[in-house]
Structure formats: C-alpha cells, structure tokens
Design goal:
This protein has about 300 residues and is α/β, with parallel strands linked by helices. The chain contains 13 helices and 6 strands. It has helices spanning about 25-30, 45-65, 70-75, 85-100, 110-120, 145-150, 155-180, 185-205, 225, 230-235, 250, 270-285, 300-310, and strands at about 100-105, 120-125, 210, 220, 240-245, 265-270. The strands form 2 sheets. The protein has a 4-stranded mixed β-sheet. It has a two-stranded parallel ribbon with strand order 1-2.
Length: about 300
Amino acid sequence: MKTVPSNVAPDFVPSGLTTTQAPFIEEAQAKGELYIYQPYELYSDANHEAWRQLYARMAPRWQQYANEHFMKGIGSLCLNPERVPKLEEVNQFLCPLTGFSAKPVSGYVPAYLFFDCLRNREFPTTITIRDAAKLDYLPEPDIFHDIAGHVPMHTDKAFADTLVRFGDCAHTAAEIVLGIKDRDEQVRRLTSIIKAMARFFWFTIEFGLMKDSAGKGLKVYGSGLLSSYGEIAHCIESPDVQRYPIQLEWVINQYFEIDHYQPLLFVVDSFDHLFSLVDELEKWMLDGRLNNVSPGEPGVSEADLESFLARG
C-alpha cells in the first residue's frame, strides 16, 4: 500500500507523477515552491513502466551513438533500468565523482537561478515522467531527459567544470547589466545576452555533437539527443542534418525551434574545447559582443529577466 508523506496535506490525492498530470507538482507550483523533494511513493506502476520502456529502447542506441564519457557515466550511476530512479541514490554515486547533485524542482527554473545552480554544482531536475502511452511526446523536460540524458555527463570532470563555468558567465552578465543606469537599455542588453547564452547552451549541452576518440566519426553528447529515441540516430545518420565545426559567432546568432528534429548541429573536439568556448563566451560578453545578437528564438521571458535583475 502506498502512503502519502506526512508533510503532504490530508486532502492530497496521489495519482502518479506523470508530466502535466501530477497534482503534487500543481500544488507545489500554486504555493510558489520551486525547489521541492521527490515523493517517491507517488510514482505509479505506469510511471515505472514508462521509465522501463524508455530505458530499454534507448540502451542499444546509446551503445551505437553516445560518446564514451556518457557510457562511462551511465555505468557509474548504476541506474535501475526497471524503475524511476531515486534522486538521493543517484546523488550518492554522482557527488563523489564531480561534486554535482540532482536538485528536484517543480517546473521551469528562471535563467539566472538555473545557471546559479550549475555554478553551485546542482542540476535542477524534473521529477515527473512522460505518459507511457506517449513516449515520443515530451511537452517539457521529464526525469528521463534529466537523469538519463543530462546527469551521466555530470560524472565527467571536464564536462562538470564546463557547467560550473556557465554559471560563472551568468554572474558576469548580472554584474554587467546591473551597472547600467537606464532601465530600457538594461533590459535590451540583458535580453540579448540571455538569448546568446541560451543558444550556446542549446547547441552544446542540449544538442551537441563531438568527435569520437579516434577523431574520425561523430558521437552525441547533448542531452536532448541522448534522451530521444528517434533523433539520436537522425542527428548522426540523416543527410538532412547540417553538421559544422562549432563557431561561437554562428552559435550565438542562430535561432532554434524546439518542436522538431534539429536541422543544424555543431561539433566540438573535446570537453576541454567546450570549456574554452565558454571562456570565450564570457570574454565576448565583457567586450560587448553579445549586446546585439540576431533576433528570433528563443524568447526571453519576464521571469528570466527579473531573475538576473533581482540579484541586485
């Protein structure tokens, strides 16, 4: 028999933790609670079955397309292929390796808070999982995307350090804009900087490709690809995908759309290369080269802007 945790209201009715259908998440959001706990008792049999199916079909594709650091990370985390993972158990394996931990959240994390979590070696992690009947439909990140897509990469020191460096960039951005007196100019410049950072994150951490260890073929390291059964093969095999060596000026000015397979992807040489690019991104920010990036997606919400401005 499943029990409801003592800190959950008596009238709360557990009905699983399915993406967009979880009363526990709705209640947390209504209370303004962003950082939450993982009520593992609420996962339904259907939730565990969704995890099992997702993991089973991705495993052979990881073997074929994922980079070696990811495969080592999957092994290090000792994920159970049959059941949704407990974050506290994931963290027991993860923290000793790089100091990172998965931090459960109730939903969207505004930009500055997200990057600040990375700076503190915390990864905001969704606890819901997609409907088992709609494994390819993902209206928003779920625990499979976050834990099976992102977190194995966090076991690699060079990659983990790159994420921390990203968090440093957010602090630099906040310091820059908070030194501007005119509110309109402050918002205009911050919008451009956030857009540039989001694009860089998208084309690297979410949808990045890298050279394999022999330097001849390509492997996947982006979490959006590593958690997508269809796109992980498409991004490597399809002639419809443009794949270019990464260039910072291209990435920060390239818009993207989230509702279809990506037609344009960028390749890094290594995670040391990626770290150096984040260094370069911060230098460009300080030199004002992110103040006027091209318009287009992604949009920058009021919550994203306020998360930076509120730091002051």
